[in-house]
Design a protein that fits this description.
single chain; alpha+beta; five-stranded mixed beta sheet; 5 strands; globular
Length: 201
């Protein structure tokens, strides 16, 4: 029993020590004076970004560590790839509307970075959606919908608001940005994001 108590104490102190070590300007940046009303983590990313693809397993694990009241969202940027980047953002927006992000995000990442599928238009991406069970009619109507234009516009505005120039970028509570250069382990990444999610000042 004593050993168990000692182990718990050591774990708590270890976690606390890490949290206490996180410093503004080193581990994270303050990018806004006002925080979001609810706790949230927003990952700015691009399907064209190799680092974003490599970050996917870490992001999946991070989500499992977040408190249940934290809203995790992705925001595709158009900062990479010119017109192809715009197409990719549109494809991600469509997956949001169709509520099949969990299927489409890994599928599109795989197509871009593993099978090297040539993609220049939504017609090129259509087979991926159909392979995921989306009908051609639903894909075509979704692609032309006003809702998709609105989603794409919102992601564009978010990118501009937080001056996102590189991806992946993680904005916590609309106020803090993780300094990716300070991340040297998955554990530190998880602890830092959880620390910022709970940060009140």
């Amino acid at each position: 029993m004593k050993k168990f108590a000692l182990l718990c104490f050591t774990f708590v102190m270890s976690t606390f020590a890490h949290a206490a070590d996180f410093k503004e300007g080193t581990d994270y940046f303050v990018v806004s004076k006002v925080a979001s009303k609810k706790p949230e983590v927003v990952e700015y990313f691009s399907f064209l970004c190799p680092a974003c693809y490599r970050f996917e397993p870490l992001v999946d694990n991070l989500k499992k560590t977040l408190p249940t009241d934290v809203d995790f969202r992705k925001n595709h940027t158009e900062t990479l790839g010119g017109n192809v980047g715009v197409v990719m953002a549109k494809a991600y927006g469509l997956s949001k509307l169709l509520k099949n992000e969990d299927v489409m995000v890994p599928k599109i990442f795989q197509a871009v970075h593993v099978t090297r599928m040539p993609i220049a238009s939504m017609d090129d991406i259509k087979p991926l959606f159909m392979d995921a069970g989306v009908s051609e009619k639903k894909f075509n109507s979704g692609t032309k919908s006003f809702k998709l234009k609105r989603v794409a516009q919102q992601m564009r505005q978010n990118t501009k608001q937080f001056r996102i120039t590189g991806v992946p970028t993680f904005i916590i509570n609309g106020k803090y940005q993780v300094n990716n250069k300070a991340i040297d382990s998955e554990q530190k990444f998880n602890e830092l994001v959880n620390f910022l999610v709970q940060k009140k000042d």
